[in-house]
């Protein structure tokens, strides 16, 4: 099996990991109604809407 000839330097590993912080959290989308972050294909916990329809009253 192929094995890496050289291991990555510490700075190269750190540079790669630094990219993760710039990325948005996975599995979250912006609610088109209230612009809060919500889980995709689920009711928005902030405004209680899904597919432009009120699913649940939120105080
Ligand atoms: Zn919302």
Q: Can you tag this structure with a few keywords?
A:
59 residues; 1 helix; alpha+beta; two-stranded antiparallel sheet; 22% helix; binds zinc ion
Could you describe the 3D structure shown?
- 3% of the residues are buried.
- A hairpin with a 2-residue loop joins β3 and β4.
- This protein is of the alpha+beta class.
- The strands form 2 sheets. The protein has a two-stranded antiparallel ribbon with strand order 1-2. Strands 3-4 form a two-stranded antiparallel ribbon.
- It has 1 helix and 4 strands; from the N terminus they run αββββ.
- The chain has one helix at 10-22; strands spanning 29-30, 37-38, 49-50, 53-54.
- Helix content is 22%, strand content 14%.
Distance between the termini: 59 Å
Question: Helical element count?
Answer: 1
Shape field: elongated
Low-confidence stretches: none
Mean pLDDT: 84
Which ions and ligands are bound to the chains? zinc ion
């Amino acid at each position: 099996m192929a094995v890496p000839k050289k291991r990555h330097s510490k700075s190269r590993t750190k540079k790669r990991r630094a990219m993760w912080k710039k990325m948005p959290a996975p599995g979250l989308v912006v609610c088109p109604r209230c612009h809060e972050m919500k889980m995709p294909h689920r009711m928005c916990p902030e405004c209680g809407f899904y597919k432009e329809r009120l699913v649940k009253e939120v105080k």
